[in-house]
Amino acid sequence: MQRIVSTNQRIYFDINKSGTFIISGNDDGCMSAWDIGSLKGNNDSTLEPVLKCQLHDDCINGVSFNPLLPIVATSSGQRKFPELVAIDDDRDDMFENIPSRDNSLRLWWAGDERSK
Predict the structure, then answer these.
(1) Residue 115: per-residue pLDDT
(2) What is the pLDDT of residue 74?
């Protein structure tokens, strides 16, 4: 299993109650899911995700399966620092290129439509 993480931030993962799926976030705002129930024996090849979806506009650092309902929780966000620029007499601000942020907690329905 591989995931895209180019930050020193801790990125969490979770395994569902039946032990068949593992999910984790990436620093590009995507969540990936792998079917570990399909692993048989000692396989040295890289397991590819069965699902990869864009859920946030920032790094997904937390994922969690609800143990009772088909709900997945994801959290996102990381520290981002604006670029400092020299202060001119004509400018009121000293920041430039303030990065966008997505610091959020979201709940996702992961069951089929009939089980709502």
Answers:
(1) 56
(2) 97
Tokens at 30, concatenated: 């995507």
Please report where in the chains the tokens 């009121």 appear, as a residue: 92
Count H helices, E strands: the chain?
0, 9
Helix, coil or strand: residue 114? helix
- Residue position matching structure tokens 């109650």: 17
Q: For residues 62 and 105, what is the distance between their CA atoms, to the nearest angstrom?
A: 9
pLDDT digits (tens, 9 = 90+) for 3-31: 778 777 889 999 999 999 999 999 899 99
Alpha carbon dihedral 81, 85, 90, 91, in 10-degree steps, equals 0
